[in-house]
Amino acid sequence: MKVIVTNDYEELSEKAFGIMADVVKANPSAVLGLATGTTPLGLYRRMIEDCRDKGTSYKGVKTVNLDEYAGLTAEDKQSYASFMRENLFSGLDIDLKNTYIENGVAADAEKECQRYNGLLDTLRQDIQLLGLGSNGHIAFNEPGTPFEAGVHVVKLAESTINDNSRLFERREDVPVSAYTMGPKNIMNAKKILILASGANKAQAVYGAVKGEITESLPASILQLHPDCTLIADKEAAALL
Ligand code: F6R
User: Any idea what DSSP says for residue 5?
Assistant: First the structure.
């Protein structure tokens, strides 16, 4: 795993943008695996500015998102589908028909997992962007998730519900389960870019980079990927 340590969040976002922009410029019909959460926001802002000011086009790009809360429609303002429209897609020239995410309100959860697995087989990610949970999760693969798991429904860990409650009015509004790509779908990406910012990620960054490769720390599987870059600001990298 290649590790880049930056002085601050802005530099982290700038470096991440450089890597993402290279993928899009090299292949205007690239498949981008995307993440929600706070960490990618600086990167997404730069992608929007670059599209607006420098004309980098996303017309041929397709995106696949990691995860979606179960029980929320794509229109629900707390859904990850809404998050992506609001924080990225609305600022790009991308065709929304080319942006894919799990259906949080599918009638049959198992069928929805099969559908999304099948989609990911046909849309292999040229790059997969990841954030890192404070417990070492990637996407919503909580500690203990089998490394060979594909798309599945997960019950969220208490620590993840606590972390995510900052984005909801009340803690009890945070959904308790979600659809997620599994480690297998993530590892299938041609390139992986994982971002971590802040002291609360330091333990997880250490485990991901230097710890034992174990299902107890899902991000540790990334050590086995042939082209994975982790960018951490100095707070997140403090234990390396
Ligand atoms: C989001 C996702 C999560 C987040 C992680 C870090 O799609 O899959 O794994 O990347 O929880 O979240 P932030 O960036 O908010 O610290």
Answer: E
pTM equals 0.97
Report the alpha-carbon distance of residue 223 to residue 217 in Å, rounded.
12
Catalytic residue among 102, 142, 163, 233: 142
Whose Cα sits closest to atom 10 in ligand 1?
131
Q: Which of 182, 184, 204 is nearest to 194 (CA)?
A: 204
Residues 6+ apart with CB under 8 A from 28: 57, 59, 60, 61
Mutate which of 9, 32, 38, 39 for ligand 1? The one with the most ligand atoms within 8 Å of its CB, which is 39
> Quick check: is 137 catalytic?
yes
Residues framing ligand 1 (Cβ under 6 A):
35-39, 66-67, 131-133, 137-140
Q: What's the pLDDT tens digit per position in 126-181?
A: 999 999 999 999 999 999 999 999 999 999 888 889 888 888 889 998 999 999 99
Under 8 Å between Cβ of 235 and 78: no
